[in-house]
């Protein structure tokens, strides 16, 4: 089925930087690959043929395939791989794994993996002319999901890449002849297929048992469908490759003879050549998932009820138990203990609640029966993994209450924003929900009764709640279990999450996901028993309550995964993602303390190979690099330099196993990391990274949350209305570029670049390979052929015009003035990439210097929008709030600031709060944005100051840590220069404020 337009109501953002980084990581692997590689190959193969006679025809020529032709040598690709890895903070490979062009892209669930690899297709086509792509998936369900995604995104991609027409189809064995169109088409072709469509046991030679793709086909001139696909040397994109790791599957991928393979997953089992990683730590830091908040409903005086969990029995001498042990400070914590038969548990734990409790008998696993223990005094029998005691019914009921209370609060807060709120309950067993009932309607289990009772009580506390959710509790809750069968008419079978029966529930969730997002659908509370497999997630889950003991080693992480995606709001444009951290929060209602939950979650991540909440070797890779003069650049340190810093910190004793030691005392007078000279300029940034690496950043207690009180009278005051009218005036800008200056600076930048390595092109009967370095010649046996005239040079002026929008005359002047055109002839693609990079960099600088703003009608951000935003309830965290001592001077009783307690924003807020001549100040909202040539800019502060002789002065200020432009990013300086021109045009005083010079 060819892709076509369909209005889905979902919006796609083409400017997500992390997605662009993932795309560029793949595209840059082939830096130096000529876009017209086929023309080079044809021309040079022709040269060989004219000297040595006709070349043998390959399958490509026989079927007329238009395929992908990669002409870079492996050394060049390896060098590109190393550059990409270092840039992305990844360990740099010394060689290609297994010598193959297999590349891994690791992206956390919910971050747009499918969008990334589909857009990568178009970027590879645009830059290098690759046109044939096969997307390989492990199952029919995923195949249909990918096909749906293509259908939903096709218009988006057509608007982004109008010069790249494409067809997308699903391979079907009953229409295998359609591969001919795929092979011979000149435009971009995307073919989606399952691994089973090609996977075949090569030991079975019977044609009748072979997959259709391996059988000769009359409609294909006696050739196999595979021959047509193989003849194109497709780019193979593997979605969820960890499910296609068998030897048979790997062999099947090789049958395509792919030009290279791209493997996309959140959980790679076997690693190849990793080019990009977006793990849970990165996803949180970039604000791509919800902030986790833990609401603990722990039992106080926890030694009143014994708790025992059987972990394992290896022999008959002792059992490994989890018990509630008393610590030295008198508190109770669960600990793993080895206990012998008849040993008093009260002695083992120091907890008198276990008085009289002992292991009476134990047995190891045998004859299909699991290991078990018998406990006295009550004769309780526990099998491995089972527990006794712990949370009581009273605690579970209180957990339900906390979840309902939080849900209703969020419902009132987010309903005006078009965001529907969902809550998930994970129950200990199905009977706890269904009781004697058989479905949602007649369910009467203990949890169901408690929920209905608690919901009515909590709803009655607010007229707003009653208006928002007037329905009977039974209409608002649903349980997603398998279709259970009764045994003997009374007993239900608990679903374990591993049977076919469970799939019924998962399919229901997936099929109804969009309906669950609709506010008109009453269901808001979902109960489940086995909801830990793929598929159980919804972006608008805001509360998760675990009405059972946390068991498996990965249960916390898997549980969180059901609600970490950013929420969506229903708008006039359709469903749109909401990344605002005051909204995007997932509250976990747990029957363990915040500290225990955070510690156990961290351990689960560590077991999965994710170093969350600790300092990592790549911790400093994304710090901005400084040039030899100390000026900050827009380039990052990369993995090699980060790893060197990490090793120094370890060797100097500041960190051990990723944790800080007692030697790390950054607040102590005269403290220093004693860094090597090349890293000393980064010391402050390195200390900040270390301080910011704790688990507390990812998981916060609900007690750390706070609300702000809105001073609505301020926005209605004449003073504020005049301020807002003055600072929010709209402008438009134009750019005047001084031609001679631009040409001069571009020539200077190009001349400063390192020499471009010439290409050596090897042509054999097998094909063409392009290598960097060596002589400008082509070796055919003992003969050397001059490259000049061997193939047409690309249109460098046209390519640069498309990338920079400069006139042909300007570009000609720059190229001739550089004096380096001989390098273009020797290596066209690398030379063009270098020139384009230099021109774009200088153009950005010259554009900002030549920007001129002009006042026009309208407002950047209407006052009524600001007032509506102020009234909206939001959640913030106390660590980023400054409590105002003179609340009449600003719009909220707390000011939100970026960074830690010593950040410039925090200090500036306190400074303004206590200055008597400051009549009014406010932190400008994120939506207050000024257009600049380098992107939108959101200034920090608006201020009214009283000064002798003047009633009021209107000011806008930007807080930074330094006045030294060399210590700020070039992009930051460019936006500040543009803002100066904008505010000068509308008559507002604008300046940068730093702790040493507030400029007020």
Structure characterization notes:
- The protein is 34% helix and 22% strand.
- By secondary structure, it is α/β, with parallel strands linked by helices.
- It folds into 6 domains: 17-33 and 70-278, Rossmann fold; 300-389, no CATH class; 394-607, 3-Layer(aba) Sandwich (Rossmann fold); 624-693, no CATH class; 720-732 and 852-993, Trna Endonuclease, Chain: A, domain 1, CATH 3.40.1350; 737-849, no CATH class.
- The strands form 14 sheets. It has a 7-stranded parallel sheet with strand order 3-4-2-5-6-1-7. It has a 7-stranded parallel sheet with strand order 17-20-16-21-24-8-29, sandwiched between helices. A 4-stranded antiparallel sheet has the order 11-10-9-15.
- β32 (759-763) and β33 form a beta hairpin.
- Residues 1-8, 47-57, 482-510, 531-535 and 774-790 have low confidence and may be disordered.
Distance linking N and C termini? 64 Å
Q: In what order do the strands lie side by side in the largest sheet?
A: 3-4-2-5-6-1-7
CATH structural class of the largest domain: Alpha Beta
How would you name the oligomeric state of the polypeptide chains in this document? single chain
Q: Compute the CA-based radius of gyration.
A: 33 Å
In the CATH hierarchy, the third-tier topology of the largest domain is known as Rossmann fold
């Amino acid at each position: 089925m060819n892709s076509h337009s369909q209005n889905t109501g979902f919006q796609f953002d083409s400017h997500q930087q992390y997605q662009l980084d993932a795309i560029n990581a793949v595209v840059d692997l082939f830096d130096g690959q000529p876009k017209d590689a086929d023309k080079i190959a044809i021309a040079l193969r022709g040269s060989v043929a004219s000297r040595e006679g006709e070349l043998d025809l390959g399958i490509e020529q026989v079927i007329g395939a238009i395929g992908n032709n990669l002409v870079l040598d492996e050394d060049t690709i390896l060098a590109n791989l190393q550059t990409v890895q270092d840039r992305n903070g990844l360990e740099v490979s010394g060689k290609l794994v297994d010598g193959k062009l297999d590349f891994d892209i690791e992206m956390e669930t919910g971050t747009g993996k499918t969008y990334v690899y589909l857009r990568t297709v178009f970027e590879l086509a645009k830059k290098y002319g690759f046109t044939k792509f096969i997307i390989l998936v492990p199952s029919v369900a995923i195949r249909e999901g990918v096909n749906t995604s293509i259908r939903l995104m096709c218009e988006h991609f057509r608007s982004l890449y109008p010069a790249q027409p494409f067809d997308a189809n699903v391979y079907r064995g009953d229409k295998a002849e359609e591969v001919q169109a795929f092979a011979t088409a000149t435009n971009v072709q995307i073919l989606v297929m399952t691994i089973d469509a090609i996977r075949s046991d090569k030991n079975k030679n019977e044609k009748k048992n072979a997959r259709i793709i391996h059988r000769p086909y009359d409609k294909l001139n006696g050739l196999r469908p595979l021959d047509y696909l193989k003849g194109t040397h497709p780019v193979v994109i593997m979605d969820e490759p960890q499910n296609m790791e068998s030897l048979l599957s790997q062999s099947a991928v090789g049958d395509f003879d792919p030009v290279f393979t791209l493997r996309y997953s959140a959980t790679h089992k076997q690693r190849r050549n990793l080019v990009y990683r977006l793990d849970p730590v990165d996803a949180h830091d970039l604000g791509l998932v919800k902030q986790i908040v833990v609401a603990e409903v722990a039992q106080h005086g926890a030694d009143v009820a014994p708790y025992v969990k059987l972990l394992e029995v290896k022999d008959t001498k002792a059992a490994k138990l989890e018990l509630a042990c008393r610590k030295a400070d008198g508190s109770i914590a669960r600990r793993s203990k080895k206990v012998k038969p008849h040993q008093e548990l009260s002695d083992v734990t120091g907890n008198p609640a276990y008085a009289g409790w002992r292991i009476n008998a134990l047995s190891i696993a045998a004859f299909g029966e699991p290991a078990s223990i018998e406990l006295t005094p009550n004769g309780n029998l526990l099998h491995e993994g089972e527990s006794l005691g712990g949370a009581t019914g009273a605690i579970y009921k209180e957990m339900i209450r906390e979840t309902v209370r939080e849900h209703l609060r969020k419902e009132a807060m987010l309903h005006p924003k078009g965001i529907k709120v969902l809550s998930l309950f994970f129950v200990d067993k199905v009977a706890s929900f269904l009781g004697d009932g058989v479905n949602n309607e007649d369910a009467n289990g203990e949890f169901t009764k408690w929920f209905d009772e608690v919901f009515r009580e909590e709803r009655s506390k607010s007229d707003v709640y009653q208006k928002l959710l007037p329905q009977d509790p039974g209409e608002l809750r649903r349980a997603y279990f398998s279709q259970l069968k009764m045994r003997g008419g009374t007993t239900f079978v608990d679903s374990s999450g591993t049977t076919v029966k469970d799939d019924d529930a998962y399919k229901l969730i997936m099929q109804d996901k969009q309906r669950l997002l609709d506010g008109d659908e009453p269901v808001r509370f979902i109960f489940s028993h086995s909801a830990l497999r793929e598929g159980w997630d919804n972006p608008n889950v805001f509360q998760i309550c675990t009405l059972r003991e946390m068991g498996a080693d990965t249960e916390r992480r898997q549980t969180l995964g059901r609600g970490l995606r950013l929420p969506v709001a229903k708008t006039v444009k359709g469903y749109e993602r909401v990344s605002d951290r005051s909204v995007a929060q997932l509250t976990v209602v747990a029957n363990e303390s915040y500290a225990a939950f955070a510690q156990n979650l961290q351990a689960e991540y560590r077991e999965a190979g994710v170093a969350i909440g600790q300092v990592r070797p790549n911790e400093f890779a994304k710090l901005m690099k400084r040039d030899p003069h100390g000026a900050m650049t827009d380039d990052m340190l990369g993995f090699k330099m980060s790893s060197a810093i990490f090793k120094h910190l370890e060797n100097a004793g500041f960190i051990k196993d990723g944790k800080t030691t007692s030697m790390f005392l950054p607040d102590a007078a005269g403290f220093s990391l004693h860094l090597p000279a090349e890293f000393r300029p980064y010391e402050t940034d390195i200390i900040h990274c270390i301080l910011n690496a704790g688990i507390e950043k990812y998981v916060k207690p609900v007690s750390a949350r706070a609300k702000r009180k809105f001073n609505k009278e301020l926005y209605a005051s004449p003073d504020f209305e005049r301020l807002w009218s003055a600072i929010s005036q709209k402008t438009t800008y134009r750019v005047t570029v001084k031609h001679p200056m631009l040409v001069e600076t571009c020539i200077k930048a190009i001349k400063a670049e390192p020499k471009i390595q010439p290409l050596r092109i090897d042509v054999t009967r097998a094909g063409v390979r392009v290598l960097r370095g060596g002589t400008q010649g082509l070796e055919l046996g003992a003969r050397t052929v001059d490259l000049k005239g061997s193939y047409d040079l690309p249109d460098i002026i046209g390519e640069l015009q498309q990338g920079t929008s400069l006139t042909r005359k300007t570009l000609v002047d720059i190229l001739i003035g550089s004096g380096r055109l001989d390098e273009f002839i020797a290596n066209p693609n690398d030379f063009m990439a270098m020139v384009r990079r230099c021109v774009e960099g200088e153009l950005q600088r010259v554009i900002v210097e030549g920007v001129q703003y002009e006042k026009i009608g309208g407002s950047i951000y209407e006052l009524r929008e600001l007032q509506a935003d102020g009234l909206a309830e939001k959640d913030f965290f106390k660590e980023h709030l400054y409590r105002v001592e003179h609340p009449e001077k600003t719009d909220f009783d707390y000011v939100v600031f970026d960074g830690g307690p010593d950040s410039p924003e925090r200090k500036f807020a306190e400074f303004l709060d206590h200055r008597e001549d400051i009549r009014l100040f406010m932190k400008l909202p994120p939506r207050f944005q000024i257009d600049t040539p380098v992107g939108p800019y959101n200034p920090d502060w608006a201020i009214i100051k009283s000064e002798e002789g003047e009633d009021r002065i209107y000011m806008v200020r930007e807080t930074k840590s330094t006045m030294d432009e060399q210590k700020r990013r070039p992009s930051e300086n460019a936006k500040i220069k543009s803002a100066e021109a904008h505010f000068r045009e509308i008559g507002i005083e604008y300046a940068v404020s730093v702790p040493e010079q507030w400029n007020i």
